[in-house]
Design brief:
The chain has about 70 residues and is of the alpha+beta class. It is built from one helix and five strands, in the order E-E-H-E-E-E. It has one domain: Ubiquitin-like (UB roll), CATH 3.10.20. Strands 2-1-5-3-4 form a five-stranded mixed sheet, with helices on one face.
């Protein structure tokens, strides 16, 4: 299961999806586009623990963390 974690002032919301399920994958990609269009930064943690900004949806990413720009 892959997870998209959306951070905001109230904490976080987690959206899990099965990347092998076409409908779930489509919803996850839509959510990615909606959040990044709304001013969220999408990041992925590397094996060394660094956060890397992602500009495009990657269905192979296990966990994507979204931060609002400006808090």
């Amino acid at each position: 299961m892959a997870t998209q974690i959306v951070m905001d002032r109230t904490g976080d919301t987690r959206h899990s999806f099965d990347a092998k399920n076409a409908d779930a994958l489509l919803k996850a990609e839509e959510r990615f586009r909606e959040l990044t269009s709304a001013g969220y930064t999408a990041t992925v943690r590397t094996s060394s623990g660094e956060l890397v900004v992602k500009r495009m949806f990657d269905p192979n990413t296990e966990e994507t963390l979204f931060f609002p720009i400006g808090g």
